[in-house]
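Quick one - first record:
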Amino acid sequence: VRPSVCLPQLWMGAHPRGDAIIRDNRIPQKTLGQWIADNPACLGAKVNDAFQGRLPFLFKVLSVNTALSIQAHPNKELAAKLHAQFPEHYPDDNHKPEMAIALTPFEGLCGFRPVEEIVSFLQTVPELRALIGEVAAEQLERSGSDDPRGVSAALRVCFTRLMKSEKKFFVDQLNMLVKRISQEVAEGKDTSGSNGDLLLRLHSQYPGDIGCFTIYFLNLVRLEPGEAMFLGANEPHAYLQG
């Protein structure tokens, strides 16, 4: 699912790509980063030592009207490696875990579903199974919860096959799925077994996008105002609405 180019957002922090400007004329420093450098005690001794006098988080307020891109943030070790190799794309060496706190009713995709739910979708959504392929689908179906490594390996194969599907093939399958679900809705049928409501909503925002199929792999999380979710390193996620 691609990002919305019109996403209203407010960022506040001391990141080198967007150091917050201080508007108080009584303060001699121009940016938050400069002020922290001159007043390192504000971070507390533990944070100051661990992050070498840098503010270790970025505060963001997002207004999500359409689904944002699926992403996963690197852990600390990988972040340092990427920063060293591609500083133009990774301007700092910190990892990027996130905590999302809902200000309004909020929807997002976060982490992989239990394997039983993914298998259920593979059995009820033939278009998804066609993209994954019979061999990979059966491998995931045979994987047992008592073998986490086997589950992880089978899941990796399935998700990789999905995301690397040939474009014409996945567009054809997506169109077939949308047509089938739309017909079922028109007939008054329950489409929850195919996650129909969310599928049609995402497809209306981004027709023909491979991200529409990720709803069968990732957890759908709904938060009420004041509730929160934590996104650790390497967890795929996408904010949908709120």
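second record:
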Amino acid sequence: SLARLALSICGWPSSQGSGVTYEGLLLVVQRGLEQVTYTSLCLPDDILHRGMSHVPNYHYRDDGMSLWEAIESFVTGIVTFYYGGDAAVSEDIELQAWVMDIFTNGFLGRTSSGVPSSLQTVAELIKFLTMVMFTCSAQHAAVNNGQYDLGAFVPNAPSSMRHPPPSEKGRAFLQHFLDTVPEVATTANILVALILLSSQLKDRRLLGQYPEEWFTEAEPRRLIRAFQGRLEEIRDRIEERNHLAELRYNYLNPLEIENSISI
């Protein structure tokens, strides 16, 4: 299952550095998967659903929306170039099998997730592909790249607790706190995992960079150049903001985003 695959990749450091067993982690992932919906994976819908449209200085939303729109524009150009209309989408057997495989094996066939099991129109295909690209690139960067920044100071995000949290206010004291947070060995395990998760690979491929020339037609190549140009504009805007900011937010800078998850 998807949960077992995820844990086979990241379960060792998590289980070694927390009080949760492999089985416990599996249960956590399964419960988390139950909360994943198509709305939560599509940034414009998710922002609206969570009531975060008008929160000021929300850089994740602002940078993320810029990236979503850039990806959507790129995907729109590519899809409309290769698919002449809705019938071309609905009659594409390989495409429909791919979407069904994602629905069945990725989301366990849960219709309640809202994830489509088939695509009937060009618009549906554009949204689905934009979601896939955004999730595997920008969304992953947003939730992964800052793990060390947040978790290196263990009290920010302790991986385990050796005692239950206080049940009454004013009853927590320094020694109780020190006895509760992870001990040195556990902390070391978690820090190693966070360093690995947040490290940049030397051979990483940034969003919009395609060393292999998969497309030979002039129009797709033009669309790639246009996409790269929009990403450069987003990069410049983020770096200009960060230059003046007291607290920088750089996780959605295109220079920090890989084409796909590479852990």
